TrEMBL record:
<dbReference type="InterPro" id="IPR009056">
    <property type="entry name" value="Cyt_c-like_dom"/>
</dbReference>
<keyword id="KW-0349">Heme</keyword>
<protein>
    <recommendedName>
        <fullName>Cytochrome c domain-containing protein</fullName>
    </recommendedName>
</protein>
<keyword id="KW-0408">Iron</keyword>
<dbReference type="InterPro" id="IPR036909">
    <property type="entry name" value="Cyt_c-like_dom_sf"/>
</dbReference>
<dbReference type="GO" id="GO:0046872">
    <property type="term" value="F:metal ion binding"/>
</dbReference>
<dbReference type="GO" id="GO:0009055">
    <property type="term" value="F:electron transfer activity"/>
</dbReference>
<dbReference type="GO" id="GO:0020037">
    <property type="term" value="F:heme binding"/>
</dbReference>
<feature type="domain" description="Cytochrome c">
    <location>
        <begin position="33"/>
        <end position="122"/>
    </location>
</feature>
<keyword id="KW-0479">Metal-binding</keyword>
Amino acid sequence: MKKAQLLWKSIAPIGLGSIGLMLIPALVSGQTGDVVTYAKDVAPIIQQNCQTCHRAGSVAPMTLLTYEDARSFAPRIKYQVSNRLMPPWPLDVGVGIQHFQNDPSLTNDEIETIVQWVDAGSPLGDEADLLPNPV
């Protein structure tokens, strides 16, 4: 009897700890909400702020008109927007006039959305959420 109790006391914490570890992803995903997807979240940002230049025959070196385009450049997009290198906007919005007409700069929320999308593996999401490209 004592042997069984001793065995239970040594195994029970490991088993309960393992169950607790399995619950962590569920708790974390519940805290972060929906997964950011290209179709629902990222495409509108790219359409509004990037496709003017990132289309065939324009000044940018690659197009960003489709999910496949964006996904193939996802790590570079993350780097460029996180470091505020893209979209290019040479004016310091912290000095003088704060709001310019046709300012392509991304908001902090838009940058965070793109970062979350890339970090999540750049999921497409539901294609029904995609809006037609304006260009």
